[in-house]
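We modelled the chain as a single entity of 259 amino acids. Its sequence is:
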Amino acid sequence: MYMTSKKIVVTRAAHQAIELEKMLERRGAVPVPYPCIEIEPEMNSPEFDNGIHGVSRGEFDWIVFTSANAVFAVARRCEMLGVDFASIGEARIAAIGPGTRDAIAAVFGLDVELVPGEYEAEPLAAALAPRPGTRIFLPQSEIARPVLRATLDAGGADVAAVTAYKTVMGRGGADVPRLLEAGQIDAVTFTSSSTVDNFSRRLTEEGSGIDMVGTTCVACLGRKTTGSALALGLTVHVTPPENTLESLVSSLDEYFKKT
């Protein structure tokens, strides 16, 4: 284990950070929590509520989850509406990656039929390849990229794309600006473009800005996250071959082995 005693910033939402923190600890690292996002489920959307009720009535052929956050947001809203989401009739479920698949199993006890080989919107749309008239329920983030819905629409699917949750600025955690300034951070991890953007915003509000990162190792999960970091002028040192937390941690360990 080459991460022993390395201080690694975790920018995920507090409710999501535990899994990554445990993985880092098993490698001997010291997780430094710095939540850069928080998830707020949508509680005032007739479209979202209609979609949930439609699922319970068996009105969809596919239910597509693009994040674990969407799973948790749907579960919370179902509880408030008194809907048993697990009663989905003949609907099939697709998930963008193994983390989302595991969340579906844990929260709803349902099997996922489709997980694309690459864990991004474009491969997911290609794997679904819906026939004209296929009915799809797509609960997603307020800031979700339009590519998945647009591709499914272009294929003739009847897509109920609804906002299930909002991503807002995180708060709390360690005094990362001070630790960066003192050279006491060994790496910063990002798992989404939102964590990158809000990390920059937090550093600007609490420190002197994104330049504080300097030559500190930056590890990004996925091409979109990497692109967001590069756009802010960060040097990305670690991008794992697979879009999973396990691959992220293993790649970080390999990085420190070489440095």
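As a brief sanity check on the tokenised model: The first strand starts at residue 7 and ends at 10. The two ends are 13 Å apart (CA to CA).
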